[in-house]
Amino acid sequence: MSSPCKSQEPAIKPIFSQQQSLATRFVFLLLICIALLFVDHRYHYLSTARSWLTMVVTPLQWISDLPSRAFSTADELVTSRSELLEENTRLKARNLILEQKVQKLASLTAQNLRLKELLNSSELVDEQVLVAEIIGVDPDPYAHIVTINKGSSDGVFRGQAIVDAHGVMGQVVAVNPVSSKVMLVTDTASRVPVQVNRSGYRAIAVGTGSKDSMELVHIPDTVDIREGDLLTSSGLGQIYPVGYPLGKVRKIVHTPGEAFAKIEVQLMAEVNRTRFVLLVFRSDEEIDPEEAPELNQEEGL
Amino acid sequence: MSIQKANAHWVVWFSLLGAFLLSIVPLPAWISIARPSWVAMVVLYWVMALPERFGLFFAFFTGLLMDVVLGTTFGQNSMGLLLVAVIVLGLHRRLRMFPWWQQAFMVFVIVGFYQLLNLWIRSALGRTPPTLWYLAPALTSAAFWPWVSIILSSLRRDFRVT
Which residues are listed as membrane-spanning (chain B) (predicted)? Predict the structure, then answer.
């Protein structure tokens, strides 16, 4: 039966030829998948491979972002002259105010450093920042992760804090040479150690998946927290630098019969509106109080 | 045994590229919840149309690439697409005979399985509390399927992809 068939050219496609090995191949590939899942979840062996592969597909992300980029460019092009003038005046006024504040800040920083010196404060930490642009948003609607255009070649590292002009924004969770992924504080996997600015009470803020708020967890009903209190990062988690504002307490709900209050935090950072973010670098060396006034110029980028 | 020569496979890779772009293009959150699983649909089509060329390994490696592009754990999407491919390999002769509405229904079921597997893996790895909205892409994929299949089959005919 088989020998005459072999001599002929098979005119039809051999649809049945692979049938018997289908189950074997499926199980084989399935096992590979499970092994990959396990290894990638538990260990970091695959992170280098992933970072290089991600760099290969970065152009894809760039292309997919083109439409929104084009829209914003077009938007800028058609802005009318009067609007521009108006914006210019507003920005000039704002700049003036900020400059005046910076003048004060220099002397205040110097004064603060001297006072800390007097108190024998162990560490004086200054932060350098680097501006980065958000070039992509994770397509998964349940993960609050964005891609920024700075990577390990710019010195970005895993666990680095990200802030915007108003407050804490997130942390770097994956780095490749030219871009990196940032988990925003609103992601359900995100936790920020905070401190109530007024009373100094420490707490942990938890991302809820909502776009502009977080929650404080395990706060007893009796703790001194009021609506409107400012929460700043406490620096205890070693990721977010101390002193950056996170948000304000928006709502406190005491439920009788429950041990903890439900506290909602309105975020300061415009987590889903800003396009530019700041990467915070911490230089842990001591700073000479005499150099203090120059700090502010160094920070500007 | 000489099998017919592979032909114009770049069409397949370009359709995949298009599907990848569509699946990462930024959309408002409320639309992106129901974003159709473009890559799964394209893989489904090519496995159905050319099962002797595109099978499990094709689905597996496309899934790995998807894991890289979407930043999911390695193996998550490859396992999902593997499941899609193995279902379609078993059903492709019947699927081709179905009228468009029945095909769309099968796409709903298959993409539903794919989403469900994704959901299980995600919850097993402890990523985000899943909701049933996670299955919405199955519905939209079924709604888009007639157009996807018309476009891809006309491409297949025009460029004689075999």
Answer: 12-31, 38-62, 74-92, 104-121, 133-155
- CB contact A36 to B (< 8 Å): yes
B18 at A interface, C-beta within 8 A: no
Distance spanning both ends of chain A, measured CA to CA: 80
Question: Is the backbone of residue B142 left (phi > 0), alpha (psi -120 to 50) or beta?
Answer: alpha
Residue whose structure tokens are 């666990």: A159
Name the B residues in 81-120 with CB < 8 Å from any A CB: 82, 86, 89
Task: Please give the Cα distance from A231 to A206 (Å, whole number).
Answer: 13
The reported pTM is: 0.69
CB-CB neighbours of A191 under 10 Å: 16
Domain boundaries, chain B: 34-153
Answer for the pair A231, A247: CB distance below 8 angstroms, yes or no: yes
CB within 8 Å of chain B, chain A residues 247-276: none
From the list B75, B18, B99, B87, the residue with the least C-alpha distance to B51 is: B87
Q: Token pair of A94, please? A: 């704002």
A45 at interface of B, judged by CB pairs closer than 8 A:
no
Establish if B33 touches chain A: CB-CB under 8 angstroms.
yes
Residues of chain A found within 8 Å of residue B29, distances taken between Cβ atoms = 141, 211
State how beta strands A168-175 and A161-163 pair: antiparallel
> On the CB side of A7, how many CA atoms lie within 13 Å of its CA?
3
**Distance between CA atoms of A12 and A29, rounded to whole angstroms?**
29
Domains of chain A (ranges; CATH) run 128-285 (2.40.10.340)
Q: b vs e for A42-78, b when ≥16 Cβ sit within 10 Å of the residue's Cβ?
A: eeeebeeebbebbeebbebbeebbeeeeeeeeeeeee
Residue A126, strand partner residues? A283
- Among chain B residues, CA nearest to A211: B29
Say which residue the tokens 């060329």 belong to: B53
Nearest to B73 among A6, A40, A211 (CB): A40
Contacts of B71 in chain A (CB under 8 A): 54, 138, 145, 174, 181
Query: In tens digits, what is the pLDDT along chain A, a chain of 301 residues?
Result: 344 444 445 556 555 555 557 888 899 999 999 999 999 888 878 888 888 888 888 888 788 878 877 887 887 777 777 888 888 999 998 998 888 888 878 778 878 877 776 665 545 456 778 888 888 888 887 888 898 988 888 889 989 999 888 889 999 998 888 889 999 999 888 999 999 988 889 999 999 888 889 999 899 888 889 999 999 998 888 888 888 889 999 999 988 888 899 999 999 888 877 888 889 887 654 344 444 444 444 433 3
